[in-house]
Amino acid sequence: MSILHWPQTMIHGSRPLFPGRKMCGFAVTLRFVLFREDLLEDLPKGSASAEYRAFELCDPEKVLVASSVGPWESIGGDIKFLRLYQKKVAGIVTDGSIRDSNSIRDYQIPVYAHSSTAKQGPGVMLPWSVNEPINCGGILVREGDIILGDDDGVVVLPQKISSEVIDIANKRIKIEEVVKNELKVNPTSPGKYYPFNDKTEELYNQKKKNKKKSSNL
Fold first, then answer.
1. Beta-ladder partners of 15
2. Cβ count near 129 (within 10 Å)
3. Under a CB-based contact definition with an 8 Å cutoff, are residues 64 and 109 in contact?
4. Average of pLDDT values for 205-217?
5. What is the mean pLDDT of residues 169-177?
6. Is the pTM of this model over 0.85?
7. How far apart are CA 63 and CA 50, in angstroms?
8. What's the average model confidence in pLDDT over 1-10?
9. Are 48 and 152 part of one and the same domain?
10. What are the helix and strand counts (H, E) for the chain?
11. Is the domain of 123 the same as that of 36?
12. What's the rounded Cα separation, in Å, for the pair 57 and 28?
């Protein structure tokens, strides 16, 4: 992303609660705000609540991204996330925490959060809005952004540059594979090729050329 002069897009402090699961989908955003008594008058109740409206927008191609008011505040637990399991959501991401992790593990949903917690959220924060731009872990997330997650964390990819980023990422994967294989065969300092430089490009182009020749034989 930095190659394209975009700011960092990795959500800070959101880690995989259940390692080994990967996630990809389009963002449905949910914003929580700090609790204040007078807000209750303006807050939709029951199924009209922002969190439940967000849940109903989720499907196998969507990732729920929720901004908490603090890392230890819970955005939900077993009963609420049962609905996301029923909707076959692609994943859940928050810079806050979740409850009932043992039960949620069985739902097989990729979950990325600061931590698990025994705390409940309603007395501390309130669900406020759906599909508005939010700040999640120091990163701006908009409705429809592509959300990618693995054991290293979560990255937010704006749709506007998604094709270009994917092309760059695929090429980088191929280059790193070539460099790694070269270092295995000819052990030397990674600094010869890493960070990428003219020698890296030369090595990659030569290996690609050799591979093309071999395939034509």
1. 113
2. 16
3. no
4. 76
5. 89
6. yes
7. 16
8. 69
9. yes
10. 5, 12
11. yes
12. 7
